[in-house]
Amino acid sequence: MVLPIAGYSQVVEDEGDSTLTYPASYFDQYFPVSVNDMLERIPGIDLALEEDVSSVSSRFRGGNRGLGATSRILIDGKRLAGKANEARTQLDRITAEEVDYIEIVRGTSSELDVQNSGQLINIVLIESALRSNYSAELGMRHFQDGTVKPEATLSLTGQNGDFNYLISADLAPGYRVEESLELSMHPDLSPNETIKLDRVIEQTNFRISSNLSWEFNSRDRLALNFLYGESDPPSKLLREIIDFNAINPRVSFERERIPAKAYNWEIGGDYEKNFDSGAKYKFLFIFNDKVGDATRERFDFLDFGAPENKNLFLDTNNGYQEKIVRTSYTWDLSETRGLELGFEGAQTTQDSELLLGLPLGGESSVDHGGLTPVYLPNAFSTVEEVRYEGFAIHNWRINSNMSIESSLVAEYSEIEQTGDIYNKRDFDFIKPKFDFRYDISNSSQFRFTLEKFVSQLSFSDFSANANERDEDQDIIAGNPELKQRQSWRYTANFDHRLPNDGGVFNSRLFYYDFDRDIGRVDISPTQTELTSTNGNVGAGSVFGLNLDASIRLDMIDLPQALLTAGLLVQDSKINDPLIGMERKVVPFDRGNVRLGFRHDVARWSFNYGFNYRDGIDGNRPFWDIDNVLYIGSPSNLMVFLEKTGWRGLTFRFEAINTLNHVQKRERRRFEGYLRDGMLNEIERFYLTDGVRYTFKVRGTF
Fold first, then answer.
1. Is-contact 403 437, C-beta < 8 A?
2. What pLDDT is recorded for position 133?
3. Torsion angle in degrees (nearest 10) through CA of 484, 453, 49, 347
4. What's the CA gap between 192 and 244, in Å, rounded?
5. Given this model, what pLDDT does residue 4 score?
6. pLDDT of residue 230
7. Are 362 and 372 in contact (CB under 8 A)?
């Protein structure tokens, strides 16, 4: 079915598998430089790129191990065998001139290289005996303290016979300036103290990556991927503290220096063999390594130039490695049914060390910054997980309108912790999933998914680690007895596309039923020494609705203007024994609103627009044994202007956090257990990192 697009190019919709095809000519009017530029002109593209709520939840808890069977983006119908170096990171590096067409796949099939849990994007490149393209992006970013940092991306893409390559290097500022104010009050709201804080994070991110593939013949393909990155994040901060509890307010200062370093590398590859029968064999592997070290030293003094006293030394060292292999065999059982059988194995190791020094008057140690060493239980730890998964994925095209994809995964894992504590445990899970799709018409689709989901554990919860949420509590104790959170997840999705590529409407209704949710648990040695750590707290549930719309403004004679809007509302509940009351399930807050606009003025080779996102305030507290932290919802307005001009270069201006959003938080501290309700202190935080301005120049050569 061919759909005319506002008098320009044409989009082809395949009635057989609900796939929309956008030829490269469709994007000529927009003068794109990269694949990202092309995708941004497709209505509803955010739906394909958007992470579902379960992915956000899993990442929040720190669990993202293994490879899995799903992916949002394919290149030439193939997934990239990478995690840090995956397809989405390449969208700005592949030049638009390399693209033959782009597919939005709304159906499911055993011919796909991955399971399609929603919609996926397939970027098909031009086949040529010899081609090469260079692209470059150079820019400067201005921060609120007047600092200007460079950023750059250089890419080489091309093909030489059966050899395809993409090589890129990136330099991006991670620089951050924070200004915050904390107001501390007694329960009667009389002032206790104020803390004014200035923090500077001197971070620069550097990364080099390559993606290489060989088509030995029509049946054999080999791909290799490599990535190396550095992101050293040293920081410094200054606090001005005013104590109002004396007759006259008392002023003091603290400063911190936090040298840090971080790097990571990754190697991945995949081999694919196709047979005359249509069957396919795949083998993938990934090896990666990530290291991060930081040393926090804090000094207090009464005035600038006065003697300083070191009152804290906190040294953290972490190493994380993964080794993953995945293999599968896919074949057709009939014209309408396909089956994939496979196996995935992964070994994941995390090493962590934590040193704490305090001015306690005892024997000092050079390793503890010249302060007295403080013994921390479970501070030196190595956690190793060996996990095996056997899986079967069955695709059945019931008729021209209906299909169902079902999968069954059997997971076995062994987690062993050594160091200060020894513990070894085995886990096994059966995880079924059913995905039913019904094409109501060429433009409307209904999808229902039922899935047993098992979240992965964060290894950082197993051992003692630094507390980044509460400066009054430097350390969080580890818990080597944590178990995985499990849930049954029910999702109903309705997707409708307007005629002539005029837009997309999408609604998703979801319900999650949790077991063994993770929150704070009581590990206090006595009734007066209250201590908590992360642990399993019980059963809970989440219910929500996500609405999205992406519409071309033809009704006001602006066919090249695209308006996007979204609304997520959700509610959750769990009975928490630590606080003795019902609370929300973290991180499922009340939701958010999203609004975006882009207008391409083709005759001037110019486009402009904005993207706005704001959370729905309320119901996002983090409960602990003796305090609760309420976090205000973040918002951000990004405005951009872009012009293609001299020598075909594209000039872009961006203003990030244009409204200079102030992040607000409130912590309430209690005397003894929080559940006893004896309020002791109220802390209110106000933080801003200012408006950032970026100017970029991009081009293809």
1. yes
2. 85
3. 50
4. 5
5. 37
6. 94
7. yes
pTM of this prediction? 0.87
- Sequence-distant (6+) residues with CB within 8 A of 397 are 109, 336, 337, 403
For 459-557, list the strands marked E by DSSP: 465-466, 475-476, 486-497, 503-522, 532-553
pLDDT value of residue 197 = 94
Residues 473 and 617: their CA atoms lie apart, in Å, by 26
C-alpha span between 244 and 234 (Å, rounded)? 33
Cβ–Cβ contacts within 10 Å for residue 402, how many? 13
Residue (of 642, 511, 619) closest to 31 by Cα position: 642
Nearest-angstrom CA–CA distance, 556 and 662? 36
Stretch (H or E) spanning 38: helix 35-39
3-state SS string for 238-283: EEEEEECCCCCCEEEEEEEEECEEEEEEEEEEEEEEECCCCCEEEE
> DSSP 3-state helix, strand, coil percentages of the chain (rounded to 5)?
10, 60, 30
* Sheet (strand 73-75) strand order: 2-4, 10-14, 19-23, 99-105, 120-125, 73-75
Cα–Cα separations (whole angstroms), residue 195 to 200, 378, 466, 532, 598: 16, 32, 21, 26, 42
DSSP string, 93-117: TSBGGGEEEEEEE-S--TTSSSB-S
Question: What is the DSSP code (8-state) at residue 485?
Answer: -
Other CB atoms within 10 Å distance of the CB of residue 588: 24
One-letter amino acid of 102: I
Residue environment code for 190-211, b if the CB has 16+ CB neighbours within 10 A, otherwise e: eebbbbebebbbbbbbebbbbb
pLDDT above 70 coverage of the chain, percent: 91
Strand-pairing partners, residue 229, are: 207, 264
Q: Between vectors from CA 46 to CA 40 and to CA 51, what angle results, nearest 5°?
A: 135
Give me the phi and psi of 56, to 5 degrees please: -65, -40
Indicate the SS3 state at residue 35. helix
b/e 458-497 (16+ beta carbons within 10 angstroms → b): bbbbbbbbbeeeeeeebbbbbbbebebbbbebebebebbb
Measure the CA dihedral 327/268/409/545, to 10°.
Answer: -140
User: What are the backbone dihedrals phi and psi of residue 638, each rounded to the nearest 5 degrees, phi first?
Assistant: -115, 125
Q: How many helices (H) and strands (E) does the chain have?
A: 3, 40
Q: What is the DSSP letter of 609?
A: E
Q: Where are the domains of the chain?
A: 2-700
Q: Which residues of 99-124 are buried (b: 16+ CB within 10 A; e: fewer)?
A: bebbbbbbbbebebbbbbbbbbbbbb
| Three-class secondary structure of residue 89 per DSSP | helix
Q: Helix or strand or coil: residue 399?
A: coil
* Class of residue 130 by CB neighbours under 10 A (exposed 0-12, middle 13-18, buried 19+): exposed
**8 A C-beta contact, residue 199 and residue 237:** yes
Query: Residues with Cβ < 8 Å from 264, sequence gap 6 or more?
Result: 84, 227, 228, 229, 288, 289, 290, 291
Q: Are 454 and 427 in contact (CB under 8 A)?
A: no
CB-based contacts of 404, cutoff 8 Å, min separation 6: 395, 396, 398, 434, 435, 436, 437
What distance in Å separates the CA atoms of residue 569 and residue 128, rounded to the nearest whole number?
A: 48
> pLDDT tens, 281-333?
999 999 999 999 999 999 999 999 899 999 999 999 999 999 999 999 999 99
Residues of the chain with pLDDT under 50: 1-9, 15, 52-53, 59
Concatenated DSSP letters of 573-586: EEEETTTTEEEPPT
Please give the CATH topology (third level) of the domain spanning 2-700.
Maltoporin; Chain A (2.40.170)
